[in-house]
Design brief:
Layout lengths: L4 H34 L6 H22 L3 H20 L1
Helix pairs in contact: 1-2, 1-3, 2-3
Length: about 90
């Protein structure tokens, strides 16, 4: 064992980190499914622009997650998901 107080906090932080990564991955997966559904039909120029924006947010979310910036990754994944939901509605 160790007397380092930071070691005591690690299990909780790890669970939270794992949860955050999992939630972000699920958002990105759902977003990908929405994109596939939306692009299975002809898109107008506004929709094509939205698809590009969604893909950019996905890319940025993945980069943020790799860099360990979980909050930013999650926020970008959420933005991508909300935009993709919009595409599917139309």
């Amino acid at each position: 064992g160790t007397s380092d107080p930071a070691a005591v906090l690690t299990p909780g932080a790890t669970a939270e980190t794992t949860y955050s990564r999992q939630m972000t991955a699920e958002l990105l997966s759902a977003t990908d499914a929405n994109l596939k559904q939306a692009t299975s039909r002809p898109l107008n120029s506004n929709e094509e622009e939205t698809v590009s924006q969604v893909k950019l947010f996905i890319e940025q979310a993945n980069e943020a997650m790799k860099a360990g910036d979980l909050d930013r990754g999650h926020n970008l994944a959420m933005k991508a998901h909300l935009l993709s939901e919009d595409l599917v509605k139309h």
